[in-house]
Hints:
Layout: H1 5-38, E1 45-46, E2 58-67, E3 74-77, E4 81-85, E5 90-97, E6 104-113, E7 121-126, E8 132-134, E9 139-148, E10 163-173, H2 177-190
Parallel strand pairs: 1-7, 2-10
Antiparallel strand pairs: 2-4, 3-5, 5-9, 6-8, 6-10, 7-9
Amino acid sequence: MAMSGPAKTVTQTVSLVVVMGGLAWASVPFYDWFCRVTGFGGTPGVSEVASDEILDQTIKIRFDASQERGMPWEFKPVVREMELRIGETGLAFYEAYNPTDRPIAGSASYNVAPYEAGGFFSKIDCFCFEEQVLAPGERVQMPVTFYVDPEIVTDRDAKYVHSITLSYTFYQIDLPEGYAALETVNDTNLN
């Protein structure tokens, strides 16, 4: 039995809405994966090991920090700029301070500018790989270990990059369960 005109149109419309909703839902993780793999949009790569090649050419790395509106932490790079040889492993620190009287959890998003350098900037280890929780009044220095891939010097666009800026933005997230329970106990004791 064939569907009539209106029933067929409704079925096709509902199917289209379901497919479009599924594509919209999948687009964010797909885009994130695409940016991490290709360095598109200034997203740095992640590496488990340091570069095995170090060139005589140097590159400046600048460090930038900001907080999302409403994030109560103070957050800044310890050193604003360093110069290292391309392929050499660098170590930089960012400092975070929680001036409040309660624990605050945060997570960092990051990117690299100019965008052409994103695929050549590789992080070996970074505080941004995990959420951070700072106790009231706590100040910490958080490391990031990285290198600039020597292939940057042969890339058609990236070979003209002489300075890279690594930027982090911290935003507040919900406290993990253990901390949230502790905060509830402290709130109860205060009342």
